[in-house]
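Archive entry: two folds, one per protein. Generate the first.
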Amino acid sequence: MVIRAFRLLFIASLSVVVFLSADSGCMSDDDKIVEGFSEHLIADGYGYAFAVMAGDIDGDGDLDLSSGDATDNFLYWYENDGDGRFTRHFVQKDDPGWFERHDLGDVDGDGDLDIIIVKNQVGQLHWFENSGNPREEKLWKKHTVSSDFKRAYDVALKDLDGDGDLDAAATNYVSGQVVWFENPGKYPESVEWNEHIIDKDIGETRTIRFADFNADGIFDLFTTTRTTDLVVWYQNPGKSTDTPWKKHIVDDKTIQPTHGHAVDFDGDGDADIILGAGMLADTREEKSNEVIWYENVGTPGDGSTWGKHRLARFEFAFEAFAGDIDGDGDLDVAATAFGGNGGVIWLENNGDPHAEFTKHILKEIWPKANQIIMADLNGDGRLDIAASNERGANEIRWWRNEIRAKGN
């Protein structure tokens, strides 16, 4: 394991790894200011790093991180000391099947954050129960949502049937399914969740995220299909589990739409979509290799009409995430690229989301960068950026936001 600005301490008896970052005034080759950010390694030495998420896992008021190591069969959570220094703890060890993308949420309603995660290779969904004292160095109790969901890829939590608990929606990219799983409200290990198929055979399904696209007060969802070039949203029928979800096409022209999020990007009161497109696309392809936002047209829009806006050309764009990075009151975007060179950028909103954004490079060479998030990891009120990459450096990093809000 390569260690530069971070010292690695092995405490064998506790099976804990502590990562200590250098003070911001003492930089090394692995700790540097890039376009208003200082870059920090959280952990390297992964076999296959494909996801990172943020949430207050230990309930101490700051944001921790979670991450899976697919080929080494580990699931971790990283305890934040409040200033962006992280201690690694195990959620699960030696569990083959490729832990990848996941979500955090209070699945059992006991007031703390649990983890729901896909096992891509074996095609399963599991959730791991937070005991309320995750620092105790015990592996978390494992529950099975589905033992037969071939090549499970992405998962997200939301109350979809209005009964007060968190259900799950997921994609699997072999059979091209979009599915939601009904939380049974009881959690013996033998109980799997009821599966409801929303759509199938639509191509290599990738992202799955929630938003109320038609402003009817209930959560809908959207997904992408990389191989059939679809961005679609599905209208939640409400409490009935037997009513079909109506399918709405956002775009079927952009090549290889991959990962993104729903957010009110233009501030008009409805849910728009931001997205990376081009994960494995030909770099000469003009209808791909880009960061996009789809405008839910109207004030507010009802999800029936969409306008596409290119924020930047970005070869092999994988995922995009929106937030106010520079503190000027509008939404900027951070994005990753999956190609041989990879990379991480942020795009500065100059006040009009329909106009040109300014591209800032955070990391120019970072092969196969994948999931990216924004979160205030050091409690200074500014959004930081965290991301993972695989089969390149196989690591997770975060970029501390050093930008002062305009006028300060």
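Generate the second and append.
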Amino acid sequence: MTHTHPPVLELRELTRTHGSGVTAVQALRGINLTVRTGELVAVMGQSGSGKSTLLTIAGGLDTASSGQVLIEGRDLSTLTRAEQAKVRRTSVGYVFQDYNLIPALTAAENVSLPRELDGVSARQARKEALAALAEIALTEVADRFPDEMSGGQQQRVAIARALVGDRRLVLADEPTGALDSETGDSVLALLRNRCDQGAAGVMVTHEPRFAAWADRVIFLRDGVVVDESASSSADSLLLEEGSQ
């Protein structure tokens, strides 16, 4: 990929230490990563390698111990809490492993909530939410509550919520974890499509099959990037990883 595309996410010398003294655990050690417009990057690695920590820091949900996180050129550490919250709401779409839908809200209300928080009128927010649900072929669940939907439907609603409005950065933590392979593929197609339309995406996954949707794959081990490849070689690298 040419570097004419502007970076949406930049991680510079990122470290994250949990705890202190002798019990300190270094979750990330000096991570550098740039993700540009139109790019989907998969992050792989064994459990405890730092994948989810990387994602929560990239989305501003956790703070790095040192280093910088830049979203569309803005260094999160230089912003006030209110400004950080605004960047998270307007620029970042986050897909959680466990959906994080609000049980008391319908699908359409869950999806429209971020837009209403942005100050968009309830009517306009609902219109955008219905458009996002239509994009993932889920219009029929618009007025259902999460407990009236299947796991696959809930995950797709969570993705619609992450994509509603003009989010430039989409972060997904094991977005296919609870889904059958066919639904998983439809979720990945959505993420891929949004990146092709100009967003940047970072996805944590342990499935080489899903990593194949990405433009490149980075491998973490003990908080360090140990390898990076085009997604087509993810299979062989993962096999190598597993045999060590």
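Annotation attached to the second fold: The two ends are 31 Å apart (CA to CA). Helices lie at 51-58, 81-91, 107-117, 122-135, 151-163, 181-196, 208-211, 234-242.
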